[in-house]
Design a protein that fits this description.
The structure holds 2 protein chains of 2 kinds. Chain A has helices at 43-51, 73-79, 96-110, 118-131, 147-160, 177-191, 203-209, 227-232, 234-241, and strands at residues 3-14, 17-28, 32-36, 58-63, 66-67, 81-84, 165-169, 195-199, 212-217, 220-225. By secondary structure, chain A is of the alpha/beta class. Chain A has a domain at 1-71 and 197-247: P-loop containing nucleotide triphosphate hydrolases (Rossmann fold, 3-Layer(aba) Sandwich). Chain A is globular, with a radius of gyration of 18 Å. The N and C termini of chain A lie far apart (40 Å). In chain B, the strands form 2 sheets. A two-stranded antiparallel ribbon of chain B has the order 1-4. A two-stranded antiparallel sheet of chain B has the order 2-3. In chain B, helix 2 packs across helix 11. Chain B has one domain: ABC transporter involved in vitamin B12 uptake, BtuC. Helices cover 75% and strands 2% of the residues of chain B. Chain B contains 14 helices and 4 strands. The chains are: A alpha/beta, B mainly alpha. The interface between A and B is medium-sized, with 31 and 19 residues.
Chain lengths: 247, 326
């Protein structure tokens, strides 16, 4: 498998705070990867740089072998990087369908400026909604949906972009247990077609989904490996608990 | 798909009906109101251009008098000093609006929110001061009057009230359907998306700066078309049209009629125009020696509107009754 995303010496400093510190990171195509770490570890800043929301202070980012370090965020979406926000970000005053259509529209226009028919666009929107099981809410105002459904809508917008890399920033935050079950199934399903990069605090979700886990602390990667290896890792336990687990 | 087509048909029918009513009004209205309506139709185009940026894109500008004036002066000066024909002068007005809105948009769109409002207002003031500074050509506040002989379009005499009304109606119709097409097109939907949540729109792959610049230019050109038509139809242009009042007026018209509705600007312009006109007459006849200003009544009317129709008349109608209103 070739690397879909690669970062070299990627750093970001906010004033006196070194949020991300020289991170070398490789994500092979087709993988579901989780990034975990304590609050303030630099996870969101790190994926923000991959998506283009945060400019790096130094270092470089490669996507599918091409350097995208200075590419604007909207262009990165067009090459296949989709991002769902940590704090739900939808078009609250528009209908559920219009939310997804705005994503599908960009995807379809973006393909070498091809024209698309209204019917094709609606098909693409509805099929994205079907994948997250929101098709019955298509004509509802997005802001009136329950919180869990709003999170799913945001994932549907990501899916409508037909990304090669889907970045999910704490997607299960605020979801109920049953909603989380469904969500795990959904991400597994997405993982069959796209590479998924997941920031997550909920360990059962991480253990159920991730093929590989990357652990960050104070802006650096301190461990990387299979869920089993990470569970047993001493440095990880210290970062989370501040002391050896068997102490 | 069928639902979409039905909405479009209803919307189209409504717009055509409005045009038809305006067409018939021409034969019904007494001379005084006939003249006012011609003026309102041209100024409603100004409001529609403003609405594209303010209502649909969510960018509050207080400098739109400069785009109106770009058309006004672009057309007026080229007729007065260069003896250009009406179509050429109209083209010059549009070109003026295009260049100015591209330049101002490019600079002002680096800011957002209140800063954008202030920056556009300052550009607007610069434009106003320009019209005063080059007084040798513009005659400043006093302004210039275009000779009647210059205001002909082929066999049509644009100073004739009937011709003038039809010319205004043609311009209004074109602007209305251009606006309707724009806001229905993917471009218009992206503008609404930017208004609702700009960061989300950017993270869906849209270059929001370019889309906002496009909206500013489209808005500027439509406002310039209104200005150019105004000077060619009514024959007078002066600095007062570039002053800040003419940046606030389209905002009022749009707020009253309903921001982000295609027909709101027309309704708002009609209501405000007649409100000012009638309250002036009423106050002067009832309280001849009080010397009160019509602005008081306008103010009260605006407070009532904001209280009961916070989204403007058509905006509230859409929210409560007619969801498909574009």
């Amino acid at each position: 498998m070739t690397a879909l995303v690669e970062t070299r010496g990627l750093s970001r400093r906010f004033g006196g705070l070194q949020a991300v510190d020289g991170v070398d990171f490789t994500l092979p195509e087709g993988e579901i990867r989780a990034i975990i770490g304590p609050n303030g570890a630099g996870k969101t800043t790190f994926v923000g740089m991959i998506c283009g929301r945060v400019a790096p202070s130094s270092g470089s980012i490669l996507f599918d072998g091409a350097d995208i370090t200075s590419m604007p965020a909207d262009r990165r979406v067009m090459v296949g990087i989709a991002y769902t926000f940590q704090i739900t970000s939808i078009f609250a005053n528009l209908t559920v369908e219009e939310n997804v259509t705005l994503a599908a529209m960009r995807r379809h226009v973006g393909r070498a400026g091809q024209r698309y028919s209204a019917a094709e666009l609606q098909d693409a929107s509805l099929s994205a909604l079907e994948r997250v099981d929101l098709q019955n809410y298509a004509s509802k105002t997005a802001g009136n949906l329950a919180y869990g459904h709003q999170r799913l809508l945001e994932v549907a917008m990501g899916l409508a972009l037909e990304p090669r890399l889907l970045v999910l920033d704490e997607p299960t935050q605020g979801l109920s247990d049953t909603e989380i079950e469904g969500f795990i199934e959904l991400v597994r399903d997405i993982g069959r077609e796209a590479t998924v990069l997941l920031i997550e605090h909920n360990m059962p979700v991480v253990m159920a989904l991730a093929e590989t886990i990357t652990v960050m602390d104070r802006g650096r990667i301190i461990a990387e490996g299979t869920p089993e290896a990470i569970r047993a890792d001493r440095a990880v336990q210290e970062a989370y608990l501040g002391a050896p687990a068997d102490g | 798909m069928n639902a979409f087509a039905a909405i479009d048909r209803r919307a189209l029918a409504l717009h055509l009906a409005v045009i038809a009513v305006l067409f018939v009004l021409q034969f019904v209205l007494p001379a005084y109101h006939h003249g006012i309506m011609a003026r309102i139709l041209v100024l409603a185009v100004f409001a529609m251009g403003y609405n594209l940026l303010f209502g649909y894109t969510g960018l509050l500008s207080l400098g739109h008098a400069m785009f109106f004036s770009a058309g006004l002066y672009g057309a007026g000066l080229s007729v007065y000093h260069l003896d250009w024909s009406v179509p050429a002068a109209f083209g010059a007005g549009l070109a003026g609006g295009l260049v100015l809105s591209a330049a101002v948009g490019f600079l002002a769109l680096r800011t957002t929110g209140v800063a954008f409002l202030i920056v556009t207002m300052m550009f607007g003031q610069v434009a106003y001061l320009f019209t005063l500074y080059f007084t040798d050509w513009t005659r400043g506040e006093e302004g210039l009057t275009l000779p009647q002989a210059a205001r002909v379009l082929g066999p049509l005499d644009l100073t004739d009230p009937t011709t003038r009304y039809f010319a205004a109606l043609v311009l209004f119709t074109i602007a209305l359907f251009v606006t309707l097409a724009l806001v229905r097109a993917p471009f218009g939907r992206v503008l609404v998306a930017i208004r609702e949540n700009e960061e989300r729109t950017r993270m869906l792959g849209y270059d929001t700066f370019r889309n906002k610049l496009g909206a500013t230019i489209a808005s500027g050109v439509i406002c310039a078309a209104s200005g150019a038509a105004y000077v060619l139809l009514f024959g007078y242009f002066g600095s007062s049209f570039a002053a800040v009042q003419y940046s606030i007026l389209p905002l009022l018209w749009v707020l009253v009629g309903g921001a982000a509705t295609t027909l709101g600007p027309l309704l708002g312009t009609i209501l405000m125009f007649y409100l000012v006109d009638l309250s002036n007459d009423l106050l002067n006849s009832r309280f001849p020696d009080w010397d009160v200003s019509y602005l008081g009544i306008v103010g009260v009317a605006l407070v009532l509107l904001i209280l009961f129709f916070p989204k403007g008349l058509l905006g509230s109608v859409r929210d409560r009754w007619v969801r498909w209103l574009p």
